[in-house]
């Protein structure tokens, strides 16, 4: 088993940064990423008069398109660095571990290489050594040129594969950025961690949480900080599971009641939900979207064999998962229309399964669906608008409903 973590280069970051470094087998720091003045790359917070106060590394003005490893501290940084040292000394000279830790602060701030990435990397390595963290640090650009061309999640997976990682651990704040299924397809387990509320005395004042590691080191011994490095929680990512016709009447019923008021008007005002759920379980072809054991999305349809059209009788997704469900439906429609370039491998698998269920294990992708039909209550203008964006056109409309069709 090999665990890795990846972080941006942050100047004297909070303790969670070093918790991740301590829990993994290799720690990667990005160097050739875009620099943003608003990011935490060059700033953090320290304690000042019982409150948090920012400290910021002054960076030379340059093109906004330059990466961190192409940026430099200001030309007169010796003067600015001296000011920062005085600020740290003024705020922490009475802290219990000031005499022990302040020489390291001087070593960090007075570092002579003013390339922004090299300067921050030196600060991270200095703190790592002080806290006796054994994890080796790797610079991203040195792992492989081909990985540099990848984007977002693919870049992270590329690093994992290059380093032969079995586990990738990320802060829980990034849970929405990654797909557990995509990592699993590469035989990598995706995990998240959450820093617990590490609390310690700060001059007998109300505790100010999540300040820079600078604050932690001023008020705590190395032995105590090493216990704090283990004060986190590992969180398993939400497992999403798509299936066909696996849900039972009770699961459908519970789902429909949870989304009842999202229908316009409310679903229970025009159907008996319990009866409707049983009918869907007995007769409909259902695409289901589960999170763990909970049914959170359902597209139920009936196939007209004679006219070869699919009638969508229900399309419902619980509110917090709505964006992901819409993407799924769009992908399936693209699959049905043979738009391979627009369809992920995961959706292609779902599409083939859909075809087999509809046509009794018919092999191949040329499935006999000429059109998709649906009926939406007129009060639900948002859903009508969504269907029209997907290429459905209005076939007819009466006082209660709008009937929509999409040719395949």
Taking pLDDT < 50 over at least 5 consecutive residues as the criterion, the unreliable ranges are: 361-366
**Structure class:** alpha/beta
- Please give the oligomerization state of what you see: single chain
Structural shape: elongated
Widest sheet: strand order? Answer: 9-10-11-12-13-15-14
**Can you count the helices?**
14
Radius of gyration: 28 Å
Distance between the termini: 47 Å
Mind sketching the topology for me?
Elements: E1 3-7, H1 15-23, E2 26-29, E3 43-48, E4 51-56, H2 77-92, H3 98-109, H4 116-130, E5 137-139, H5 145-148, H6 152-162, E6 167-171, H7 180-185, E7 189-195, H8 213-219, H9 222-228, E8 232-235, E9 240-244, H10 249-258, H11 273-283, E10 285-291, E11 294-304, E12 309-317, H12 322-336, H13 345-358, E13 371-377, H14 381-389, E14 393-397, E15 401-407
Parallel strand pairs: 1-2, 1-6, 2-5, 6-7, 12-13
Antiparallel strand pairs: 3-4, 7-8, 9-10, 10-11, 11-12, 13-15, 14-15
Structure description:
The protein has 408 residues and is α/β, with parallel strands linked by helices. The protein has two domains: 3-235, no CATH class; 240-407, Aminopeptidase, CATH 3.40.630. 36% of the residues lie in helices and 22% in strands. The strands form three sheets. The chain has a seven-stranded mixed beta sheet with strand order 9-10-11-12-13-15-14, sandwiched between helices. The protein has a six-stranded mixed beta sheet with strand order 5-2-1-6-7-8. It has a two-stranded antiparallel sheet with strand order 3-4. A hairpin with a 4-residue loop joins strand 11 (294-304) and strand 12. Helix 2 packs antiparallel against helix 3 (98-109), helix 10 (249-258) packs across helix 11 (273-283) and helix 12 (322-336) packs across helix 13. The longest helix has 16 residues, at 77-92. The chain is elongated. Residues 361-366 have low confidence and may be disordered.
